Amino acid sequence: MVRSVALLLLITKLGVASFLETTTPARQASQIQGYQTACTQNTAVTFDDGPYIYEQALVNTIVAAGAKGTLFGCIYDDQNVQALRHAYESGFTIGSHTWNHYNITLGTTDNLGHQLDLVETALWNILGVKPALFRPPYGAQNAELVSYLNSRGYTVVGWSTDTQDSVGATVATSEGILNAATAGNLFLAHETIQTTVQQVIPDTIPGLVARGVNLVTVDQCLGVNPYQAVRGSYGERDASWTCQGTPAPGQGF
Ligand SMILES: [Zn+2]
C-alpha cells in the first residue's frame, strides 16, 4: 500500500460533542517521557496513515458510502486540507507520524528532525497547531530517537492492541479484538483500510459505548496535552503550501 504523508488520527468518541472537551486541556501534563504503549486511563482507538480518502467518512461516524478515489497525494492537496480540518473540528486529535512514513530507526536524529519540521510546518499552516503526539511508523523506535522526540516536546505513542487490519485480518477478527476492549487498551487501526472504516468501526464502536467503555483521545487516555501550541486560526494557502522538494514515500528521509 502506498502511504504518503502520514498523520496520526487519535480517535475520540465518534461525535462532534467532544470537540470542546478535548480543547480545554489546561490541567494536563505537557508530555510523558519514553515510549507509551497503553492508556493510563480509559480506552483509545487510533487511526494511522491519514489523511486518506476515507477520512471524511471516518469522522462522519464512519459512514463511507461509496468511498473511492485516487491514491493519496500531498497533505497540501485541497481534499486533504479539508479532511484534516474536518477531523480537527470534529474533536479528533491529530499527531505526527512522520512526513513520508519511513522507519525512523534507519535514519539519524537529523533525518527525524527534518521530518518533524515538515509535519509541524504543514499542521501550523493548515490547522494552526503544533502536534504534541508522535507515533513511529511500524512502531519502530529506539531509546535515542525517543529521547530526541521527547526533547522536541513529543509524547511518543505506540499501541497495546493491534486490530491487525493492516496485515490482512478479516473483519470478524478485527471486530473481535475491538469488542474485547477494556480500560487501558490503546488500539491501532488504519484509516487507509476500507473495511476498517466501512465495517469494523461502525460495527463495534456503538456497542463499546453502550457497555460503558469510555473511548477518549490518546492525549486524554495518557493525560497529556494534544498540542504543543494552538494558534486559534487556520492559515491561508500560499506558494509555500507544496510537497515539492520533500521526501516522497519510500524515497529516503
Ligand atoms: Zn503508519
From TrEMBL:
UniProt keyword Transferase, yes or no: no
Membrane-spanning parts: none
Residue span, NodB homology domain: 41-216
Cofactor(s) listed: Co(2+)
InterPro entries: Glyco_hydro/deAcase_b/a-brl, NODB_dom
UniProt KW keywords: Carbohydrate metabolism, Cobalt, Hydrolase, Metal-binding, Signal
GO terms of biological process kind: carbohydrate metabolic process
Residues making up the signal peptide according to the UniProt record: 1-17
GO terms of molecular function: hydrolase activity, acting on carbon-nitrogen (but not peptide) bonds; metal ion binding
The protein's name: NodB homology domain-containing protein
Species per Swiss-Prot/TrEMBL record: Coleophoma cylindrospora
Species classification: Eukaryota, Fungi, Dikarya, Ascomycota, Pezizomycotina
